[in-house]
From TrEMBL, chain A:
It is found in: Cell membrane. The lineage of its organism: Bacteria, Bacillati, Actinomycetota, Actinomycetes, Kitasatosporales. One of its GO terms (cellular component) is plasma membrane. This is Sugar ABC transporter permease. It comes from the Bacteria. It is a multi-pass membrane protein. Residues 71-262 form the ABC transmembrane type-1 domain. Its main location: membrane. The chain crosses the membrane at residues 12-33, 70-95, 107-128, 140-162, 183-208, 241-262.
Length: 277, 334
């Protein structure tokens, strides 16, 4: 009765669709990496394979482009962001997941609304604010902005992780005579740990990828972050695509590895509506 | 659970009741209860305070400032700015300008519609595909999707520019060898349509993974019996999709559509970084880029702020729709 009528179509169609998907998703990544290693990057045209494998573009990027400094700046800003964002968002997540209080729903909705605000609307007043406080061109000033940008998503995601810890575990700690802070340190924190790590990595990626603020705030070339630093390899008329793709590879690859590692833990949070990767 | 949060409170009560005096325990109990209530009342706010201060200082306050700024002429002066109140002049200028109605708004809106439509369609198709694959291929495809998702906007944009770059880019060369264009003279980035075509490709490539993975999670919740019943009734795959899949997980489609709309309305980096996107070609402005250029390239912070407020209001409307959708679904247990 229920004979499958489409064996042929699906035998051909399915592999075709998979192939198309793999090409569409991975080809840009492949083209970036293969151009980065191609010694004759500019003239490769539509050759699918690079003309050779060399590290000259990477050498150029580090020696002449000062890209090591930019990667370091990005790492410093990213780490400052996750340290602060992890602590702040964990406390806030506990508050909204574990306590019932007045205005709790309002706080949550405000957090949701605030992350929909376009960055272009924030960059003008924050630029003026930071200029008044002489925080432009400072990694600290940039980190502070990124902490704020990554907080809403972190609170929203961690709230799920905290709520998933059974209340009975906490209650058991109280019965054993633990104070709230003891319970937090020895019970809640270890259980929420994996979620906290995943959320922190996501905050790091947010800071690492961000462009508008870094581009607007950082005017001294020694303070560029990596995402902005690539820009300098664009010439007036011609672009040296080898170095551009080499530095792009250096920026992209760590993000991809981290993202594939943590996405499973963030699944529900990403769906709850937040930042795009 | 609330009672358990204050361990020392209950302890004080129990030690009180073991005393001999009958009046003392009730006093003690009363004091402990009051303290417990106070702690319960203050602790969530103590925990929330640091985050709320940061969000208020760096997101809410700037929003108020950008509103104020849009009513002023702001001049950057050494060691501070100089502001003159101008009322709604910037809004009047903005709403009267041809650039807004003929270029900026159409670019923003049509680009967003194209991106959202393609992102949701492609994401859904990929979710249906993933749902039919065996475990190995499903894993391979999922990782490749994640790679596209993880590609930073900045570097992703550079790769697309490189692919379509005039003369040397791969797509230009291929089109040239097929006789479609002359690679020497064709520049995809100068005209509005091809410019935004490439930007759409970039945004869809980056955006469809979120839709695919969210819709796939929704597909897994649909009972198989529904499809079996549909098949028995003679519905083909197309009908089963529109009559069973779509109505059953309509909330999921709503959420991904609204979120994509919010994101695609405020695309900035992907347009700004493209050749001509950072100000030299006014034909390709969208609202975000326009606001940025007015403020930072032309030093007209007031006009830039007015455009930014317009964009924010647009997004706020969509966001309210989004939150109402979430609530109606009752999925988010706030």
């Amino acid at each position: 009765m229920t004979t499958r009528r489409t064996p042929l179509a699906s035998r051909i169609g399915l592999p075709l669709a998979v192939a198309a998907l793999l090409v569409f998703t991975l080809f840009p990544v492949y083209w970036m990496v293969s151009t980065a290693f191609d010694p004759k990057a500019l003239t490769r045209g539509s050759d699918l394979l690079p003309s050779g494998v060399s590290f000259e573009h990477f050498d150029f990027v580090f020696d002449r482009g000062n890209f090591g400094q930019y990667l370091l700046n990005s790492a410093i800003v990213g780490i400052a962001t996750i340290l602060a964002a992890a602590v702040l968002s964990l406390f806030a997540a506990i508050a909204v997941a574990r306590f019932k209080f007045k205005f709790r729903t309002s706080v949550l909705i405000m957090v949701l609304i605030v992350q929909m605000v376009p960055l272009e609307a924030l960059v003008i007043p924050l630029f003026i604010q930071m200029r008044d406080y002489e925080m432009l061109n400072s990694l600290l000033g940039l980190s502070i902005v990124y902490i704020a940008l990554s907080l809403p998503f972190a609170i929203w995601t961690l709230r799920g992780f905290v709520a998933a810890v059974p209340k009975e575990v906490e209650e058991a700690a109280y019965i054993d005579g633990a104070s709230w802070f003891r319970m937090f340190w020895s019970v809640l924190l270890p259980l929420v740990g994996p979620g906290l790590v995943a959320t922190s990595i996501f905050a790091f990626i947010t800071a690492w990828n961000e462009f508008v603020f870094a581009y607007t705030f950082m005017k001294g070339s020694d303070k560029y972050t990596a995402a902005v630093g690539i820009f300098q390899f664009f010439g007036e008329n011609t672009t040296s695509w080898g170095p551009v793709m080499a530095s792009s590879t250096l920026v992209t690859v760590p993000v991809m590895i981290f993202f594939v590692l943590v996405h499973r833990r963030l699944g529900s949070g990403l769906a709850a509506g937040a930042v795009k990767g | 659970m609330k009672e358990m949060l204050v361990g020392d409170g209950s302890k004080a009560g129990s030690s009180g009741s073991s005393g001999l005096s009958p009046a003392a325990p009730t006093d003690n109990g009363e004091a402990a209860r009051r303290r417990k209530r106070l702690v319960n009342l203050t602790r969530p706010w103590v925990l929330l305070a640091p985050s709320l201060i940061v969000l208020a200082g760096l997101l809410l306050w700037p929003l108020i400032q950008v509103g104020k700024l849009s009513l002023q002429d702001y001049k950057v002066k050494f060691g501070g700015g100089e502001a003159t109140f101008t009322g709604f002049d910037h809004y009047k200028d903005l709403l009267k300008s041809d650039l807004l109605w003929k270029t900026v708004l159409p670019n923003t809106v049509f680009f967003a519609i194209a991106c959202v439509g393609l992102t949701v369609a492609l994401g859904t198709a990929v979710a249906l595909l993933l749902n039919r694959l065996g475990p190995t291929w499903k894993l391979i495809c999922s990782v490749s999707i994640l790679a596209a998702w993880a590609m930073p906007a900045v570097t992703g944009t550079y790769v697309w520019i490189w692919l379509f770059s005039p003369e040397d880019g791969m797509v230009s060369q291929m089109a040239d060898s097929m006789g479609l264009i002359d690679a020497e003279t064709t520049n995809w980035f100068t005209e509005r349509l091809p410019f935004y075509g490439i930007a759409t490709l970039n945004v869809v490539h980056h955006g469809f993974p979120f839709v695919a993975i969210t819709v796939l999670a929704g597909l897994l919740t649909i009972p198989k019996e529904l499809y079996e019943a549909g098949e028995l009734d003679g519905a083909n795959a197309w009908q089963r999709f529109w009559k069973i899949t779509v109505p059953t997980i309509k909330p999921v489609f709503l959420v991904v559509t609204i979120l994509s709309t919010i994101w695609d309305f405020k695309v900035f980096t992907q347009v700004f970084l493209m050749p001509g996107g950072s100000g030299s070609n006014p034909d390709v402005y969208n609202l975000g880029v326009y606001s940025y250029i007015e403020a930072f390239a032309k030093n007209d912070y007031g006009a830039g702020a007015a455009a930014a407020v317009l964009l924010t209001l647009l997004l706020l409307v969509i966001t309210i729709v989004y939150i109402r959708t979430l609530f109606r679904q009752g999925e988010e247990d706030l």
